[in-house]
Automatic annotation (TrEMBL):
Gene: htpX
Segments traversing the membrane: 20-43, 63-85, 180-199, 219-238
Record-annotated Peptidase M48 domain positions: 104-327
Location(s) in or outside the cell: Cell membrane
Key words, A-Z: Cell membrane, Hydrolase, Membrane, Metal-binding, Metalloprotease, Protease, Transmembrane, Transmembrane helix, Zinc
Annotated protein name in UniProt: Protease HtpX homolog
UniProt enzyme class: hydrolase
Family from the record: Belongs to the peptidase M48B family.
Predominant place of localization: membrane
Pfam families recorded: Peptidase_M48
Annotated source species: Endomicrobium proavitum
Amino acid sequence: MPKITTYDFIDSNTRKTALLMVLFPISLAALIYIALLILGAAHSADTTANAAKLSPVMFANEIAIYAIPVISAAAILWVIISYFFGQNFILSAAGAVELTKNNSPEVIRIVENIALTSGLPMPKVYAINDEGLNAFATGRDPKHSYIALTKGIINKLDKPELEGVIAHEMAHIGNRDIKLMLITVVCISFATIAAEILLRVALSKGRSSSKNKGQAQLLFLALALVFYIYGYFVAPLIKLALSRTREYQADATAALITRNPQGLASALRKISENSTVEKLKDKETVAAMCIETPLSKEKQNSLFSKISGLYSTHPPIEKRIKALMEMDGQRT
């Protein structure tokens, strides 16, 4: 089997990110057009309609010529804005606050040493006020990167363990995993937010009894359904771009940076006992960015989760620990 290098991961993630940014508006437009065709077929079959009947294709074309450019433009604008500022939304959603040399000198010193060893720029460091043990990295490139650590992981891990976790997150930055994960989160969140807005507009239209507003309500409901379908059924396919091997690769890189696989292995054992983060426990889009899923046990064990595999973004932590121990010449 050919050896996969860090440069291979960087090239692969860069290609996947570009492909995702191109396919996102195209796939949305295709799904919207299919929904309009179905709506057009229903309209044609409506024997109570007095207006002149249009074929499903003509009906779809008449609406798509306005709807698709507007929605596609909004999607592209959302991706561009989020590419540059998406990390701010994510850190804000987690309730993270920036750490400095004044309020957390020991953590900053560890991050500085790991950045120097790995040959990467110093990222900004944030703390999440939660006793759960978790961490994630975000940003668009190494020069614009951010590491977030829960207070639980800062307070409950010893120094070698914390070094392993920070080195793991630095590996995600170096491999450009952060850019791919940021765009993935952005695409999925656009669909869910658009669905919520369209549903609210449809419900407000429903308060009127006029026929035209009733048709508009049906149109907005159909578009809301499209975005819900995109968020809940297409999103898992998008997440396939997030290879689960990225975690093994980040673990291995962290072990090389710290020259101490046992440090990260010990950290993962403690993290596995309590990785839930209150502000992230229902944010499955951000969960893929964390060192271990922060979702609640109920969400992970739900029937929907088991059927869709939506939340299966991390390999089993026992396998990651085993791989690290084998790197150190030990068996678990």
